[in-house]
């Protein structure tokens, strides 16, 4: 609702104290009635313009406009053209005219919810009169014209985001089409792939701040985005209209910031959902989109501030800020409420808040989103094409939000039962029958309906620590190993201790994320690294590798000796292993818990027993590192020989750790060490092996952010060497976070 009443006398009220200014209304503003958003300007014949616009029936215009005269209320000497307000006076909505001609308009200060009649888009009609030709040409320039601001600022912002997404789509398609040839092709292609991987893996650690950066490529992309927003928003001039104040009450900086902020909204929601279109088109899983979700949200909020503050400056300059707030106009209050809740959404999503209480974070986040969308929608009030962006947001987000619920209810069922128990090392084990397939590293969101309404509506993400069965081998089971912390997992642990093996109702949503299966199969050798509770994350890799590398029964006897060289195997066996992919698997686990070490080795032995066959485990090498105080507890004598890739080698275990099993005894080929693993050195050793043979290495890591940073930088260094031509082959990295990044 537009109350930008302008004066024939130029400049702010304090600029000239001679003749009182004569306030006039622009009927063109009343036509859309957007308070301080349409560029109101003086007109020579307001009554004629109003009557030409609305005819003799003025009730609708009055009912939909709250007319304020800020200059009049601030300066008693100000007079108002009675001819302008005369048609409104007949309706009884303008009153309290004093003897000193001070105007106080009280035209329905409690504004309507939305401007009537309701439309999808507001009008773009504009007439230059009474502006001069030069003034009109200046105002109608591309960067100045309010009536095309959505085209000039919002659409280029959308185009920028779409170009970034399109780049990732092209990269994903090329990667899928070329597959293994990406590191076996021409040298120039190897170098290009190596450089892209270097940018994707190289990160920085600021020890003083205990801060680990995003990968270099993501930082460069963020820099490009910063430059784009800076050039689109802060480079164009002016920030405010010149002193003659002929061009309206919406400062140019506020206008372009508002439209660019609005254009960010669909992409904030597009990167927020677990199931989303961007993941479908680019192959980037939802948890890896979280960094973009946060960064776009930051841009959204900063632009919202740049939209808000120019209006404050403008009204402070004209001394009418109090009058606008006192009027209780919906436009202002909806903007304020939307900004407050947007600030909460932006900053309360920090990991500190999430770790403080995940359920609290989820509930407040959802509530804030609803309030923000409603008030923001109300605030925009179909200005130009503003509502198109709400429609786009709904089209992007609503199907993605509904699909997981529909899949859970109709495909997985609402009567799923989970068996809960506690392992020897204190991990919570959750087992759920499943009728779908998944790949290593994927996770599911679980809602436990037996623990109250709060946990029934709050989904918790857990990594799957099992592999799906191959028909007709039997029923697949989702197995989760969870280290309890606080909040819900502590309650779940207590329940499992008190009711071991109990069945509880659960809703399953997933699977999501996981490794790139094609990259897994394209790798000749695998290096899997995990820390702490990431031990369970390793198990699907071992099971998949062992199961895939089993030699068929008719090929077992008298044909092949254990070997990691595909070319040395018989033809049929070589074909089988080539179809499976990797020929060797090295597993590195670092843990501070002795019980976790014992549990892990025992679980691996049981897993190998499940697939016991000739040569089935010949390519698996497991190394467990006890770190911190656990290393001293395991070997109090501290007389442990040194190893090339570790600080201490435990003498308490042999080269083969054999765990008895009722079905069959299977030895785990590996070693146990004390102290932290030298991860960069281990990566370097494995990369050197594949480089000598012209093969490829797949590195998969799950652990603390510092572990991921060390491994990522080591892999980035190897790819930099490939780019420089010092090495051949390929080194691929997949990193898995303990929680949302």
TrEMBL record:
It is a multi-pass membrane protein. It catalyses: 2 a Fe(II)-siderophore + NADP(+) + H(+) = 2 a Fe(III)-siderophore + NADPH. This is ferric-chelate reductase (NADPH). The lineage of its organism: Eukaryota, Fungi, Dikarya, Ascomycota, Pezizomycotina. It is an enzyme of class 1 (oxidoreductase). The chain crosses the membrane at residues 151-175, 216-239, 259-283, 295-317, 329-348, 360-377, 389-406. Residues 644-657 have a biased composition (Low complexity). Belongs to the ferric reductase (FRE) family. Residues 407-518 form the FAD-binding FR-type domain. Keywords: Cell membrane, Electron transport, Ion transport, Membrane, Oxidoreductase, Transmembrane, Transmembrane helix, Transport. It comes from the Eukaryota. One of its GO terms (cellular component) is plasma membrane. One of its GO terms (biological process) is intracellular iron ion homeostasis. Residues 633-670 are annotated as: Disordered. PANTHER family: FERRIC-CHELATE REDUCTASE, FERRIC/CUPRIC REDUCTASE TRANSMEMBRANE COMPONENT. It is found in: Cell membrane.
